[in-house]
Amino acid sequence: MNAVSDASLLTSGRGLSLVAAIADRWETLPYPPSGKTVRALLATPAPAPHPS
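== ATP-binding protein ==
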């Protein structure tokens, strides 16, 4: 493989470090011929109760 192909297979780097920092779970999936798809789960906090 050449350097470009090797780089496209990496699962970390650039924006993925941001995804890892804010996501509760994330994964990468191959997107042929030379890309990848990133899926992330971001949990939302429960809403604060309204004062009565």
